[in-house]
Amino acid sequence: QWQLMESGGGLVQTGGSLRLSCSASGFTFSRYGMSWFRQAPGKERELVATISSAGGSTNYADSVKGRFTISRDNAKNTVYLQMNNLKPEDTAVYYCSCRPLGAWGQGTLVTVSS
């Protein structure tokens, strides 16, 4: 059975940085594209970034372009989200997902203080 486990969330000041990690198991990680989503309080879950199976193609929500970077290490079965220049509106629970499998992690909370 697949498992996704996020880590790296926390409290950071405006302008700060965090790197989220998502460790995958139970499936052949290198065969699948991966995504990061987030859900802020009272809002719908939104797609933040995606990366192709080999890591050669990435896409970002307009709200995070130029600030966030998605990457992956297929040898470690891990996908990352580097978040720089964080803003209070980035406060949310961040989830990694393998959408082709319908797989989701439990989420990690990122709080950006103003």
Write up this protein.
The chain has 114 residues and is an all-beta fold. It has strands at 3-7, 10-13, 18-25, 34-39, 46-51, 58-60, 68-73, 78-83, 92-98, 103-104, 108-113. The strands form two sheets. Strands 2, 4, 5, 6, 9, 10 and 11 form a seven-stranded mixed beta sheet that branches. Strand 4 and strand 5 form a beta hairpin. The protein is globular.
How far apart the termini lie comes to 40 Å
Molecular shape: globular
Instruction: Supply Rg.
Output: 13 Å
| Number of β-strand runs | 11
Largest beta-sheet characterization: 7 strands, mixed
SS element count, helices: 0
- Give, in order, the helices and strands: EEEEEEEEEEE
| Computed structural class | mainly beta
Percent helix, as a range, is under 10%
Proportion in β-strands? over 45%
Seen as an oligomer or otherwise, the chain set is single chain
Mean pLDDT over the residues: 97
Query: Unreliable segments (pLDDT under 50, ≥5 consecutive)?
Result: none
Keywords:
single chain; 114 residues; mainly beta; 7-stranded mixed beta sheet; 4-stranded antiparallel beta sheet; 0% helix
Helix-strand layout with pairing:
Layout lengths: L2 E5 L2 E4 L4 E8 L8 E6 L6 E6 L6 E3 L7 E6 L4 E6 L8 E7 L4 E2 L3 E6 L1
Parallel strand pairs: 2-11
Antiparallel strand pairs: 1-3, 3-8, 4-5, 4-9, 5-6, 7-8, 9-10, 9-11
